[in-house]
Amino acid sequence: MSAHSPSLVIAAIICGAFIPVHAGMNASLSRTAAHPIWATILSFGVSFGCLMVATALLRPGLPTWSSLAATPVWAWLGGAIGVAYVIATMLLTPRLGTAAFIAAVVAGQMTMALAVDHFGLLGFPRRPVELSRIVGTIMVIGGVLAMQLNRNT
User: Fold this and answer.
1) Contact by Cβ (8 Å): 102, 20
2) How many C-alpha atoms does 13 have within 13 Å on its Cβ side?
3) 38-94 pLDDT per residue, tens
4) Residue 101 · residue 147 · CB < 8 Å
């Protein structure tokens, strides 16, 4: 299947559609759990439970100790980034609104993705930045700024 296959793009769009829903769920859980930290623990507890069910159903092989030991230190920080993101959804989505929060998240993602691709960071192949991608990212950032104009907060 080609990297530009329409089905892959559609799958990514569907995943993206879940992000604002996820942010709303996290914000709601945060309100009822008395603190974003407790809500994050509960959210990741549900995630862990889902992973245990998936593990029982799929029965993947165990990683080897040597493969885990060979993992770059920075790769272990993905969980910390996940925690930071979930807490951010709880704190920022109610204040910014879902659309503005997601637009800002996408702007940050696009900016970092350009750097990751251009420099071949995190084990990805180098993909030099092209003008069209820079323009697209600037347009996303412009959209974030436009969404913040004339806000009644």
Assistant:
1) yes
2) 6
3) 999 999 999 999 999 999 999 999 999 999 999 999 999 999 999 999 999 999 999
4) no
